[in-house]
Amino acid sequence: MSDTKTEAIDCFFCTNSDWAYFGNPPVKAMGERYGPPVDDYPVDIGSVYARTGGIKLPLRSKERRHYRFLGMRRFRGILSRPINPPGQRHEAVGGDPGVLRHRRHPAQP
Fold first, then answer.
1. Tens digit of pLDDT per residue, the chain (109 long)?
2. How far is CA 2 from CA 5, 6, 79, in A?
3. How far apart are CA 22 and CA 17, in angstroms?
4. Whole-angstrom Cα distance, residue 69 to residue 84?
5. DSSP states of 10-73 as a string?
6. Amino acid 29: pLDDT
7. Which residues pair with 51 in a beta bridge?
8. Separation between Cα atoms, residue 101 and residue 39, nearest integer Å
9. CA distance 15 to 92
């Protein structure tokens, strides 16, 4: 019997996070390139915010939302990944929370 332990990359993420959308492919590629499996752990960000005092995006000030989007635009260019413009909703679709695929929705009234 061997005492060796298989190392894994633990990936904690919120399924409707733009940052998880940007970060998921590089993490998966790192696991494929170097061998360790990637263990996905979806996080219920609403419950985290409720316990820690975090502010959900729709409730943040206009300035904070704008600054966040500027950062997302910058990463969109660096990573060559499409993003939805502000005012348009997105959601993760599909059965595997480790595979983030976003679907575009019309802006909500």
1. 444 556 899 999 888 788 888 888 889 999 999 988 999 899 988 888 889 998 888 888 999 988 888 888 888 888 888 776 665 554 444 444 444 444 443 443 3
2. 8, 11, 41
3. 9
4. 10
5. EEEE-TT-HHHHHHHHHHHHHHHHH---EEEEE--HHHHHHHHT---GGGS-HHHHHHHHHHHH
6. 92
7. none
8. 18
9. 6
Q: What residue segments make up the domains of the chain, in order of their start?
A: 9-85
Token representation of residue 36: 């360790």
CATH code at 9-85: 3.40.30.10
Q: Which two tokens stand for residue 31?
A: 């696991």
Residue 108's nearest CA partner among 96, 90, 92, 81 is: 90
- Given CA atoms 84, 90, 94, 96 in this order, what sign does their dihedral have? positive
Residue 50 contacts residue 43 (beta carbons within 8 Å)? no
